[in-house]
Amino acid sequence: MKIIPAIDLQNGEAVRLYKGDYDKKTVYSKNPLEIAQKFERMGATDLHLVDLDGAKIGQTRNLELVRKIKDETRLKIEIGGGIRDFDTVRMYLEQIGVERVILGTAAVEKPDFLKELLIKYGPSRILVGVDIREGFVSTSGWLEKTSLPYLSFLKKLERIGVKTTIITDISKDGTLTGPNFKLYDEISKESSLNVIISGGVKDNSDIQRATRSDFYGIIVGKAYYEGKINLEKEFRNAN
Model pTM greater than 0.90? Predict the structure, then answer.
């Protein structure tokens, strides 16, 4: 199972939101590159980046910072936030050289665009972030709740050819109360998609629970920044 540390970017800083609320933000560092390099020294092989500015307004605002992290670490980077057109995908995958891009809003609103990307780049490089609030998919940086039930959407993604999804229970994100394992277990039972857990991780026991259930991956953010989890130990155990 992949253990993927996360850095959320806003205005060039590493931040975390509480339940996706842009007004409830904690700044953890003014130098996200230093954090990425520390993750690498600890044994991380992958890094989850979110451009929060991009997610909110649909435009990349932290591009040079992403480029710097890619150039100055050997981490395999997946990035999401505001990726809603072909030029942005191509820029990230071909020019900057990140390993994977994550579509959210675009996957909901433009399924044909998603199909096109899967054909061109393959499902290992195109991930879909499915953000769930009260049983329905949310878009636009979690600000808009659709009328689309999450299981129906996941079935649609399967038919399109998506292989890997990052599933976030928005009500858990940033709360340090543990992931919604009931939700993730249901999704694993009802679909063949690779599931990466996101939101609510509180300590090492959550990583161990996810490992036992054979999920594809788990994203760790606030629990690390708040000193609740020993990531170095988990990287060591994973290797």
Answer: yes
